[in-house]
Each structure stands twice: as structure tokens, then as C-alpha cells.
Amino acid sequence: MDDDGVGAVFAALADPTRRAVLRAVADRGTATATDLGQAVGVTRQAAAKHLDQLAAAGLVVDERAGRERRWRVETRPMADAAAWLTTTGQAWDTRLTRLVEVAAATRAEDGAPPVP
Amino acid sequence: METPTRVVRSVRLAVDRGAAWDLVGTEAGLARWLGGEVRLDPSAGASLRVRDDDGVERVGRVVEVDAGRALTFEWATADGAASTVTLTVDDDGDGSRVTVVEEPLAGGSVAACLDAGAAWEHRMLHLEVGALALRSAPAFAAL
Q1: B100 contacts B86 by C-beta, under 8 angstroms
Q2: A3 contacts B7? CB cut-off 8 A
Q3: Which residues on A lie below 8 Å from B136 (Cβ)?
């Protein structure tokens, strides 16, 4: 999954009902849109719409079981999103450490006393 | 469980807000710390190019400048990883505080960063996701 996908994951999860649907899928292992609608208090149609959006972000996949369409969680996109948060945070830690050092040097160049 | 969908970092600088803005809101200042090679004219719509010390290069465009206080830009790596970055400078006692927020763009790409044109600001996303467990599948139970 590329980082476009990470953005799609975060966008999909921006909606609280969609997060509730995802949580309900995870709790059940597999579930139908009807199950999930009842679980989160929305219509089957609304649940199906949320599932489609979660699927577009790669967060759930569907499987046919006879006449039923059952959904399950796909964990890889979540792991990729978590990895993005980690690597991006580390990069900013490095950059901001440099910024602090540069600011301290600037202060010294201006003749101000060093900050403890 | 509260889990962020954006990266937020904040540091205190031992210089006043004006000096901090010189480091955050000018190309010469940014070149001293943002990366190994920085081309970033901090004016809205200007293109930018930043090469990190590890060689990773990002290109993008400045979205908005609030002179003396905030700089927002979008950038993307060559493989299409696009995100929005906002650097904000505030007073903090006799010093200053710089805060950075970076969040990924849904569907963002290098092409989008370079060609967004008039639609640029409309593509900015401000995602506030309340609760999300990212570490592993069992953690979904904590959503």
C-alpha cells in the first residue's frame, strides 16, 4: 500500500459512524451489512454505504457465503497508516532537533547568554 | 482509545517569535534545519523542493502564509506520498514555540501537488479522527 492509501485510510476513518462499523466488523470477525446496521443503529443501506467506503480504503473486504455478503477487516492498511505516523513523527523529531540547535546558535550569535 | 491520524510535534525555541519566524518563514531560515537541500519560497502558490539528509526528495507547493505566524504547504515524495504540513510560531514566555502538524492527503500525489492550481485549497483535509487503534488487529476492540 502506498501513502495515497494512507490518506484514504485516514479519510475513511474521519466519520465516527464508519469507525463504529469498522469496530463492529472487527468484533464479529465477519458480518453482513444487516448485522452491522443493527449493531451501530443505522439502516442496512447506510451500513452498506459505509462498508463500501471502508472497502475503497482497503479496510474491509467482502466474501460471498451463499446469498450472503459477509465483510471482514483487512489489517494491512491500518498497519501502513501506523507506520506512516511513526516514520513521519521520527522525521519531524530529527528536523525539530536541528531547529532547536539552530535557534540556540542564532541566540549565541546575537550575543545573548546560552540557555540552560 | 484516542489515536491520532496526523503527526503533531512542538518545540520551544530560545529566541523570540520574530527570530523564530525568520527560521520558519523564510527560505534562508528553513534551509538551516528543514532538510539537506531546501528550495522553499514561502509565498502562497510557490513551488517547493526539499531533499532530506537521507536523500528522500519531496516536491510540492506553498498553500498559505500567515506572515509572522504560520506556513502551510503540501508536499509529496516521488512514490506519491502526499501530505499537508503546517508550521506555526507562537510566543512562549521569553522564547517561542514552533508546532508542526503533518497529515496525509487522501488521494494525494506528486501530480496533484504540482497541478492542483485553483483547486489547491479545497484539497486541504483537516481530519479529526476520534478513536482508532492502529497497532494490530486485536486493538480494533479499543476503537
Answers
A1: yes
A2: no
A3: 75, 79
Subunit contact B14:A103, Cβ cutoff 8 A: yes
Q: Mark yes or no for CB contact B134/A23 under 8 Å.
A: no
Chain B residues whose beta carbon lies within 8 Å of the beta carbon of residue A102: 23, 32-33
Contact call for A85 and B80, based on CB within 8 A: no
Which residues on A lie below 8 Å from B135 (Cβ)? 82
DSSP letter (8 states) at residue B21: H
**Maximum Cα–Cα distance for chain A, whole Å?**
78
Give the model's pLDDT for residue B126.
Answer: 26
Residue with cell 479496510: A59
Prediction ipTM score: 0.73
A96: nearest CA in chain B?
B11
Secondary structure (3-state) at B82: strand
In B4-135, where do the E strands start and end?
7-13, 37-40, 47-51, 57-66, 70-77, 82-92, 95-104
pLDDT at B3: 45
For A11-51, the pLDDT digits (tens) are: 888 788 998 999 899 889 999 999 999 999 999 999 999 99
CB contact under 8 A, A14 and B5: yes
Cβ proximity of A3 and B77 under 8 Å: yes
* Nearest-angstrom CA–CA distance, A44 and A98: 53
Identity of residue A66: G
* Residue B115 vs residue B127, higher pLDDT: B115
Rg (CA), chain B: 16
| Ramachandran quadrant class, B45 (left: phi over 0; alpha: psi -120 to 50; beta: rest) | left
